[in-house]
Amino acid sequence: MYIPFSDIDFESRVWVYQANRKLTNEEAGIITETLKASLDHWEAHGKPLTASGKIFEHRFVVIAVDERDELPSGCSIDKSVHWLQEIGQRMNIDFFDRSLAYLDANDEVQTIPVPKIKQAVADEVIEPSTIIFDHQVTTKAQWMTRWKIPASNSWLNRYFSQQTSL
């Protein structure tokens, strides 16, 4: 059963998928409607899941499920992955490319290939205060408080400690 993202419980489990490019308004609308329809009928072992999905920053699809009502099964989670794979194939969008880091630079999402992060830190393109998107959040509450964090509070912190030791 689909519910608005604002109404889903704070302890709901979330998955964050990032598009490899900015979505157009039309694409965001199509994806939103497709997700609503899919999530409205999402089930685990024949039992409906209370779920939501929303697009943020024209780049990120966040899917949430309230596990208090029913736990998603491996098959149901796979089904949600397949939805995004199918949408991506139809629209030429890759939601599964993990080779990019996502930064919030002046309210604009920018990407840097992971192999170039060390150089971006050396060139001060990424600084400790640079806001990054941390997709390792697992609940809506974490998403609300830790999805956008300073690079120094993320997995990128190790690159700053390398800088100071040079």
The average pLDDT is: 93
- Given helix and strand content, the structural type is alpha+beta
* Helical proportion, percent range: 25-40%
Biggest sheet: strands, sense, closure? 4 strands, antiparallel
Assembly category: single chain
State the end-to-end distance: 54 Å
Number of helices in the DSSP assignment: 5
Q: What is the count of β-strands? A: 9
Order of the strands making up the biggest sheet: 7-6-8-9
Count of structural domains: 2
Which band does the percent of strand residues land in? 15-25%
Helix/strand layout:
Layout: E1 13-18, H1 25-40, E2 43-44, E3 47-48, E4 51-56, E5 60-65, H2 74-91, E6 100-105, E7 108-113, H3 117-122, E8 131-133, H4 140-146, E9 148-150, H5 157-164
Antiparallel strand pairs: 1-5, 2-3, 4-5, 6-7, 6-8, 8-9
Helix pairs in contact: 1-2
Descriptive tags:
alpha+beta; 5 helices; three-stranded antiparallel β-sheet; single chain; 166 residues; four-stranded antiparallel β-sheet
